[in-house]
Amino acid sequence: MASPMNPLLTVDNLRVAYPAREGGFNEVVRGVSFTLGRERLGIVGESGSGKSQTGRAILGLTAPGGRVTADTLHFAGLDVLTLTPRERRSLRGGRIAMILQDPKFSLNPVMPIGEQIVETLRAHRKMSQRIARERALEALAAVQIDDPERVYALHAHEVSGGMGQRAMIAMMLIAEPELLIADEPTSALDVTVQLQVLAILDKLVAERGMGLIFISHDLRLVSSFCNRVLVMYAGRVVEEVAASELHRARHPYTQGLLNCLPQLGAARHPLPTLDRRPEWAL
Amino acid sequence: MSAPRGAQAGLSLRHLRVVFDAFVAVDDVSFDIAPGGSFGIVGESGSGKSTVLRAICGLAPLAAGNVALTGGVDTAAPASKAFRRQVQMVFQDPYASLHPRQTVDRLLAEPLAIHGIGDAEARIELALDEVGLGTGFRFRYPHQLSGGQRQRIAIARALILEPQVLLLDEPTSALDASVQAEVLNLLEALRERHGLTFLMVSHDLAVVTHLCQHLMVMQRGRAVEFVAAADLAAERVAADYTQSLMRASAGFRRATG
Predict the structure, then answer these.
(1) How many CB atoms lie within 10 A of CB A82?
(2) What residue in A sits closest to B247 (Cα-Cα)?
(3) CB A217 to CB B244 under 8 A?
(4) Secondary structure element (H or E) that encloses residue A120, with its range
(5) Mutate to test the interface with A, among B201, B205, B207, B252 (most CBs of A within 10 A)
(6) Chain B residue set in contact with A, beta carbons under 8 Å
(7) How big is the A-B interface in CB pairs under 8 Å?
(8) pLDDT at site B4
(9) Among residues of chain B, what percentage have pLDDT more than 70?
């Protein structure tokens, strides 16, 4: 799928650091490199592994005070790190979009959902309010919301988590981004709702042929959804595996992550746990 | 805590009903847990599963029905202080359930003070040992601990009263997968060592069947199905809802065609 000649995103030696209390900097992402075509890439790791910081750095959403450096950070031929704040802002939500974990926090609580979608659209495309509204209703219908007119007028607190996340997906996809970064997009949802939301995301990503970076702590989920998986530990990529080859993962950390989950119908007492070795973090 | 214990207690619920204003959160739920048994409740958010736990320990009002400890010689009446000592709860989010401005020592001393139990020094040290933390953690604040370590403190706080029944409300859902495995192993070991009775709530079928022999599936406040863990593992389930939960826990599959 990905043409190596012309990747959508090239990341080489990405580093993110925050000021440490004792002075100096703490590196939370330490030399991450990958290229992405119009494919699905999973980034997996535990809390603190730097997976979310990697996604945020690509978008330019690193918290104030953080320092982002990279030998290369190119998106569709643009050197992202040298863009002006204004140029970066026009990329965000336009050509690169991001879906966050919990719609309760990522939706604006005091603005009807439909108006938020219209706002996103009109920030990136010149169009009349009336046409934007129609497009927003279409987008809500595309994420399988049965009654878009009704949901358009609702506020974030009036919808369920699954409905909120679908509205979020509608909002992120409305400007037709080329790259979508989804950071734990279904972790806050119930298991059955997770599958519905993933199926919608799956269909839309396939139809529009965009690149997807799926960030999650759930290795199994990611491998069932993506073509390729980067496994991160302590700010580094410790292993890259094709999703179909996951059972052949060689790094003990990847194997540990796979093994430690309880499975239906395969009782193991006690569960195998991760024996973290200091050399993994070197 | 390693002191020998009296008779173990089980738990019996009859026609439990919890109503918030006009909303019926739990509707006619009954089940029994044998002394030393482990029972799981599975369901989605809003199904009433956590409310059942909260009703048992008096954190939610009972509109009807009753809760009783069974099997033991000194089974206490619900809502009494003795009942609360025998039935302890571990909450979902260890980031929210520990007082941020109290040290581990203070957190663990509190239940002892409430129940007038002496010998706090030795009990706190023992409780920390039991959850695998050691006394080095005694004077730390919650923000100095990782999520897994915090959940261990919450478990130590519940165990320090030597309860017979432990109510576990999604004890691992806020934790990383590898830390979840450690906490599940800890809970299992503690149950074996102390003959505890477990009642665990989770949305994750695999986690519940790992720890519990029997489980109840809840939807919209009602019990949809009772099933043994072994039957669930063999996919012998009757209710549609249980089947959809099973499919969901198998992970994402791309629709074909």
Answers:
(1) 8
(2) A192
(3) no
(4) helix A113-124
(5) B252
(6) 44-45, 147, 176-182, 184-185, 188-189, 203-207, 209-210, 232-235, 244-255
(7) 92
(8) 41
(9) 95
Q: Which one, of A16, A3, A112, lies nearest residue A55 by Cα?
A: A16
Residue B3: pLDDT band (50, 70, 90) is very low
Distance CA A216, CA B30 (A): 38
Q: 3-state DSSP helix/strand/coil percent for chain A, to nearest 5?
A: 40, 25, 35
Pairing of strands B10-20, B165-169: unpaired
Residue of B nearest to A265 (CA): B233
Cα–Cα dist B209/B205, whole Å = 6
Contact B103, B181 (CB under 8 A): no
Do the Cβ atoms of B44 and A191 come within 8 Å? Answer: yes
pLDDT at B73: 63
Nearest CB to A190; choose among B44, B176, B210: B44
The minimum CA-CA distance between A145 and chain B, rounded to whole Å, is: 19
Task: Round to whole Å and give the CA distance between A167 and A241.
Answer: 32
Are A43 and A214 in contact by the 8 Å Cβ rule? The answer is yes
- Residue B55 carries which DSSP code? H
| Contact call for B203 and A193, based on CB within 8 A | no
Nearest-by-Cβ selection for B251 from A190, A199, A220: A220
Residue B182 has its nearest CB partner, among A202, A264, A273, at A273
Run means of pLDDT, 10 residues per run, chain A, 282 residues: 69 95 91 94 92 94 94 94 93 92 90 96 93 95 91 93 91 92 88 86 89 91 90 94 90 90 82 84 80
Which of A202, A261, A266 is the closest to B254 by Cβ? A202
Digit-coded pLDDT (tens) for B117-158: 999 999 999 999 999 998 899 999 999 998 899 999 999 999
Distance, first Cα to last Cα, chain B: 59
- Name the band, by pLDDT with cuts 50, 70 and 90, for residue B6: low
What ipTM is given for this predicted complex? 0.78
**The model's pTM:** 0.85
Asked whether the CA dihedral A180, A183, A186, A188 is positive or negative, the reply is: negative
Task: Give CA–CA dist B188/B195, Å, rounded.
Answer: 10
Instruction: With cut-offs at 50, 70 and 90, classify the pLDDT of residue B5.
Output: low
**Pair B167, B137: CB distance under 8 Å:** no
